[in-house]
Amino acid sequence: MYSRRSRFLTIMLILGLAFFYIPMIMLVIYSFNDSKLVPVWGGWSVRWYQVLFESEEVWSAVALSLKIAFINATCATILGTMAGLAMVRFGRFRGRTLFGGLLVAPLVMPEVITGLSLLVMFIALNQLFGWPGERGFTTITIAHITFSLAYVAVTIQARLTGMGETLEEAAADLGAKPFKVLTAITLPRLTPALVSGWLLAFTLSLDDLVIASFVTGPGANTLPILIFSRIRTGLRPDINALATIIILAVAICISIAAILMFRQQRADMLDQQMAAREDT
Amino acid sequence: MGAKLTETNAVSDTPWLNQDGQQPLVKIKGLTKKYGGWAAVDNIDLDIYEGELFCLLGGSGCGKSTLLRMLAGFETLNSGTITIDGVDMADVPAYERPTNMMFQSYALFPHMSVEKNIAFGLQQDRMPKSEIGDRVHEILKLVELENFKKRKPKQLSGGQRQRVALARALVKEPKLLLLDEPLAALDKKLRKQTQFELANIQDQVGVTFIVVTHDQEEAMTLATRMAVMDAGRFKQVGTPTEIYEFPNSRFVADFIGSANIFEGRVTENGADHVRVKTEIGEVFIDHGQSVNVDSKIWVALRPEKIHIVKSQDPASGPNQVSGEVDDIGYLGETSIYKVKLPSGHIVDVTAPNQTRPMNRTHRITWEDKVNISWEPSSAMLLTS
Amino acid sequence: MTDVKAQKPTIAAAPRKTVFQRFMRRVQNNFRLIIIAVPLVWLVLFFLAPFFIVAKISLAELAIASPPFTPMIEWLDGGVVTIRLVFDNFAYILNDSLYFDTYVNSLKISVTSTIICLLLGYPIAYAIVRSGPVAKPLLLFAIILPFWTSFLLRVYAWMGLLADQGTINNLLLRLGLIDEPIRMLYTEFAVYVGIVYTYMPFMILPLYANMEKLDGSLNEAAADLGSRPTNTFFRVTLPLTMPGIIAGSLLVFIPATGEYVIPDLLGGGNVQMIGRVLFNEFSSNSDWPVAAAVAIVLLFLLVIPIIIFQYFQGKASQDP
C-alpha cells in the first residue's frame, strides 16, 4: 500500500529519524574530544580509546559479558525453539495456557521485579541445595536465559505459524517419523528464525543491566554494570569511546546481515522470474 | 517393483460392478468428523476398488478435503472405520500408512532439490541408495523432468512443480494416492492439458487415485467414478455418465452442469413410459421408472438436450412448448437462449452455433417466437 | 515395499547400538514430552516459583540475619507449627505517602510517555508503510538499528545532550537564545525524553506490522465512496490499527512503569519512580521484606495490562 506520503508524514519521519540518530552521532563525535570534560570541546584526539584499551577492568567485563551472552543465546535458542514448537505444533495439552502465559510474561515484566524474584530464588535454592553457590557468572546466565528464551519463543512461534503445517504433513505422508520431520523439515526451514532468535538473545544479554545487577555477586561485573557504575556520577569521555566502538560493531554486523538478506531476496526473485517463463 | 510403473493395469475397468470377484481396496464405514457440534464429514460409507480414479466433487466446505485428510491420517475421526487393503487404519499414524498425498500447494520442501524431494520418501523406508537412485531416475523420466533434478522448487514453473509433487508421491508406489485439488494452482490452458496427462499416468502406473476437486469438468474428465458431496454427505456416487445423465436429486442435477427443473405430478405410470403434468405442460418420458401416480415429482431438462426452432404456429404434440426469446447469451461455440413460456417460466436452451451469423444477425434473435422440444428419453425424473 | 523390509537385518544380527544411538532412541520415543517439559520446567522454576518466594518474603519481617527476614513457618516446642504472616509491610507502603506518591508519579510518567510515543510513533509508522519499495526496508532498518545498540548508552547519549554544559545548552548559549544554561538533566523532563527515546521502537514496530497487513485498497475504496483523507483516517485506518495501538502502548507502558535506569541516570535524585525506589530499598537499605512488598504492589498494578497484552499476543499467534 504505497501511494503518496503526505508532507506531514514526511516531516514526522525526518524529525523522528533525527530524534533517533542525533544523540548517537553526538556521542560518537565527543568520543574524539581531547578534553577531559566531555561537553567542552578540546580538539580531536583518540586518547580516550587508548585509555579504554589499557583498562584491565574493561577487558574483563567485556570478556564476561561476551561469555554470558554466547552461552545465553545458545541455551535460550534451544529452549525457546522447543517452547515455540510446543505452542504451535502440539495442539492442545495440559498446561498449555500456563505455558503460554509464562512465555509472554517475561517480555513485559518490569526488570526490577524479574531481577528481584530471581535473586530470592537463587538464595532459596542455595539454602536448600547449596547451589548455585557464589552468585556471578552462573546466576546471571540463568537469569538471562529465562527472559531471552521468551523472546526467542515469540520469534519461533511467529515463523512456525507463518510457515503453516503442510510441509510437515507432506514429510509424515512420505513416511518420516515425528523426530525425522523435526530434523529434516522443520529445523532447516526455521533457520532464519533461529539465527535472528540467537542474535536477539545475544543482544538482550549484552544489554541487560538491571537483572544482572540483582543477581550478580561480588567481583562479577558485566560490561553494563561497569558502564553504569562509571556514568552514574556524570559524563566520562572513555565511555563515549566505548559507546562508539559498540555502535560501530553493531552497525557493521547488521549491515552485513541486511546485505546478505537483500542479495538472497534478489536471487529468489530472479529465479522465480526465470522459472515462470518455462510454462508452455 | 520398478516394473510396475510401466506395466499396464490388468484390473477390470469397472471393478465396482463385479464386487464378488474383488475385495475393495478402501473400505469406509460410518465415517464421521465433527468440529464442535458441526459435522464436516457425516456418516459416510464408501468402497473404492484397486485401479480406480475416484473423484470427490463438491463446493468449498463440503467436507471433501477433510475426508481426504482422514484417509492420509492427518485428521482424527470421531466415529467409523477406514480400512485400506484389509488393515484398519485407526491406530496407524500418517507416516506408516500405505497412502501418499499430493498437496494442493504441492508442499515441496523448498530447501531440497527436485531429486532430494523425490528421494525423501524412499529414504524413510531405508531403501538402499542405489535403488533410490534408480527409482528417482525412473519416475523423473515418467514426468519428463530428468533435466531439472538439480533445481530447487523455487526455480521451477508451476507446471513443473505440479509434476514434481506427483512424482514425489508416486515414487513410493503407494496403494492409494490422494490428490488434493491437483490442478487448481495451474492456469486454465495448462490445467486442461494436464488433466489428460494425469489420467494417462494413472493408467500407466495402475495406482488407485482419489482426487478431490471443486471443478466438475476436471472430475468428469478424470474420474472412473465420482461422488458428489454436500454438507459432509454423499449426494450421489457413480460414473460421470450416470451422474450427469441420471442424477438422483435436484441438488445433483443442478450442481453438475445446468438443468431446467419443473415441479409436477405423475398422471400416468406405464411399464415403459411416464406422463407428468408440470408447470410448463405435460411431459412424456419413454423410460420406465417406478413412481407412484399422483405423487409429487420434479422433471429436469438439460439445456443442450432441448431443440429450438423459429415458428409462427403454436406448438402441438408431446414435449413441445412454444415461447418467446427473452435473452441470448453468445458464448462463441454455443449460445444460450432464455425462452419465456406463456406460463411465465424461463427455460434455458443451448444450441451450437453451426453457422456463422451473417451481417451480425443471429438465426434466432430477441423476441422471436420459438418452438422448443425434446426427446421422450431426455427428461430426467427426480424424486427428491 | 515388502522386499525392502525383508532386507533389514534381524534383531539377533543387529550390531550393538552405541550409547548415542540408544540415547537418540529414547529422545525419539519421548519426543513430545521432552519438548514440552524442558522449557516449561525452566520457566516454572526460574520465572513462576520466584514470584511466590517474593510474595512470601513480603509477608515477613526485617531481621538481622542472612537473608535478612524472618521465616514464615516456625517450629515451636512440642511440634506446634506457627505460620506468621506479617502484613505490616503492605500497611507501611500504602500509608507512607512517599511510596504512595511514587506509585502515582510512576504511573503518571509512564502513561504520559506512552501517549507521547503513540502520537509521535503513529505518523512515523504510517509514513514508513506509505514509503516506496526501496525506502521501506531501509527506513524500517533505521528504526530497528538503535534497538540493537546498548540501551544504557542510548540513555547516556542524552546525558551529554541535556547536561548544564551539554550540547543543547552550549548551542543555545552560542546562538544567544539564552543567557544561562537551562536545567534539563536531572529533571522530570529528562526522564520523559529518555523513556520516549528508548521505548519508541516498541511503539513503532507493532504499529508498522499492523498497518502493513491492512489492505491498501480499503483507503482507495473509501476515497472512491467520497471520503476525504482525514475522514478515511478516523473512520477506516484508525479503527483497523487498534490492535497495533494496544500492543504498542502496552509494550511501552508496562516496562516504563517499572523503569529503573532512566530515572536514575536522567532524573538523578529528583524524580521518584517505583523501580528506582525498589532497587534502592533492596540494595542500599537491605530491607528485603519492604522491597518484596513494593514489587508485589507494582505487580498488582500491572497485572491487568499484562493480561490484556497476553490476550492479544495469544490471538496474534493463533491467526496469522
- Give the N-to-C terminal Cα separation of chain A: 33 Å
The strand count of chain A comes to 0
- Could you estimate the helical fraction of the residues of chain A in percent? over 70%
Helix run count of chain A: 11
Provide the structure class of chain C.
Answer: mainly alpha
What is the molecular shape of chain C? globular
Distance between the termini of chain C: 40 Å
CATH superfamily of chain A: MetI-like
Overall pLDDT metric of chain C: 82
The gyration radius over C-alpha positions of chain A equals 24 Å
Task: Identify the quaternary structure here.
Answer: heterotrimer
CATH class of chain A: Mainly Alpha
- Strand percent estimate of chain C: under 5%
What is the fold named in CATH at topology level of chain A?
MetI-like fold
Radius of gyration of chain C (CA) equals 28 Å
Secondary structure layout plus pairing:
The complex is a heterotrimer of chains A (280), B (384) and C (320).
Chain A: H1 7-31, H2 47-54, H3 56-89, H4 96-108, H5 111-129, H6 137-163, H7 166-173, H8 178-207, H9 210-215, H10 223-231, H11 237-276
Chain B: E1 26-35, E2 38-48, E3 53-58, H1 64-72, E4 79-84, E5 87-88, E6 99-102, H2 114-124, H3 129-142, H4 158-170, E7 176-180, H5 188-205, E8 208-213, H6 216-222, E9 225-230, E10 233-238, H7 240-245, H8 250-255, E11 260-269, E12 274-278, E13 281-285, E14 296-301, E15 307-310, E16 320-330, E17 334-340, E18 346-352, E19 369-373, E20 380-382
Parallel strand pairs in B: 3-8, 3-9, 6-7, 7-8
Antiparallel strand pairs in B: 1-2, 1-4, 4-5, 9-10, 11-12, 11-14, 12-13, 14-20, 15-19, 16-17, 16-19, 17-18
Chain C: H1 2-7, H2 19-29, H3 31-58, E1 73-75, E2 81-83, H4 88-95, H5 97-129, H6 135-148, H7 151-162, H8 167-175, H9 188-213, H10 216-224, H11 229-240, H12 242-257, H13 261-265, H14 274-283, H15 288-318
Antiparallel strand pairs in C: 1-2
Helix pairs in contact in C: 3-15, 4-15, 5-9, 5-12, 6-9, 7-9, 9-12, 10-11, 12-15, 14-15
